[in-house]
Amino acid sequence: MKESEIEKILVQNVKHIGGMAYKFVSPGNDGVPDRLVLLPGGRVIFAELKTETGKLSDLQQMQIRRLHNLDQAAIVIRGIDGVIQFFVDYGYPDTAKKLKEKYGGKQ
Questions:
Q1: Which of 25, 37, 91, 95 could tie 87 with a disulfide, CB 3.0–4.6 Å?
Q2: In the prediction, which pLDDT does 104 show?
Q3: Rounded-to-integer distance, Cα 79 and Cα 51, Å
């Protein structure tokens, strides 16, 4: 599955649970995560999306470390399994189950 498809699935399902997933672009700060995910309850997560085999660049790794150093949630979501796990980790098991049923996955 392409990274753009993974991103689309994440965005649609975040909206479905009442959140938002903004495309995050920060001029002059290359390598920042792809999405700024805002979940109900005030949770904010910076999310970098990759295919199952996609690699983080050195710049992306550095930007994620910078966010972690500021105690921000910054994660890498790899493939559909990563999207499913995202919803499990953040308390939306029903969404994860629906995604698993629709797309399969190792979960």
A1: 95
A2: 84
A3: 5
In this prediction, residue 93 has a pLDDT band, given cuts at 50, 70 and 90, of very high
- Whether 43 and 18 have beta carbons less than 8 Å apart is answered as no
The pair of structure tokens assigned to 9 is 């699935």
Strands 20-23 and 35-39 come out as: antiparallel
Cα 46 to Cα 59: distance, rounded to the nearest angstrom: 15
What domains, with CATH codes, occur in the chain? 3-103 (3.40.1350.10)
Say whether pTM exceeds 0.85. Answer: yes
What is the C-alpha to C-alpha distance for residues 65 and 62, in angstroms, rounded to an integer? 5
13: CB partners within 8 A, 6+ apart: 83, 87, 95, 99
For every residue of 50-107, DSSP letters joined together read E-TT----HHHHHHHHHHHHTT-EEEEEEHHHHHHHHHHHTT-HHHHHHHHHHH----
